[in-house]
Amino acid sequence: MYDGALNCTGTLPLQPEFPVSILIMAKEQTDRTTLDLFADERRPGRPKTNPLSRDEQLRINKRNQLKRDKVRGLKRVELKLNNDAVDALNQLADARNISRSELIEEMLLEQLKKLA
Questions:
Q1: What pLDDT band is residue 50 in, cutting at 50, 70 and 90?
Q2: Inter-residue contact 99 to 93 (CB < 8 Å)
Q3: Read out DSSP for 50-98?
Q4: How far apart are CA 94 and CA 19, in angstroms?
Q5: 8: β partners
Q6: Which ranges carry the Ribbon-helix-helix protein CopG domain (predicted)?
Q7: CB–CB of 3/9 below 8 Å?
Q8: What is the CATH number of domain 54-115?
């Protein structure tokens, strides 16, 4: 018989007395928040290191990039060019060891100075 945290007197029954009720917790296959339930389950592919979906991660990364650009005083400008122009810009940027974005900015500033 058990009569305290450290005191055990008598013998404990080895066999449970019937009827025994067993509580089984349901686990939802899509619930990945309780990882211990799925510790023994093998899943294909590389292990998931981030609880967010790839789409959510991309959105957060893009938002963070825009915040960093704003702090640096940069504004986003979109530009569509043909392949030949992009190839020429890439070659010139590589030759000068700068990014294509930096090269385009330099070229635009030079042209603006000439016009002013």
A1: confident
A2: yes
A3: -SS-HHHHHHHHHHHHHHHHHHTT---------HHHHHHHHHHHHHHTS
A4: 79
A5: 2
A6: 75-114
A7: yes
A8: 1.10.1220
Helix/strand/coil for 38 = helix
Q: Is the pLDDT of residue 102 over 90?
A: yes
Q: What is the pLDDT of residue 71?
A: 95
Give the relative orientation of helices 100-115 and 83-96 as an angle to the nearest 10 degrees.
100
Closest CA to 11 of 1, 26, 24: 1
Whether the full predicted model's pTM is greater than 0.70, yes or no, is no
Span 57-81, mean pLDDT? 92
Tokens of 79: 């530009």
pLDDT higher than 90, residue 45? no
pLDDT value of residue 30 = 58
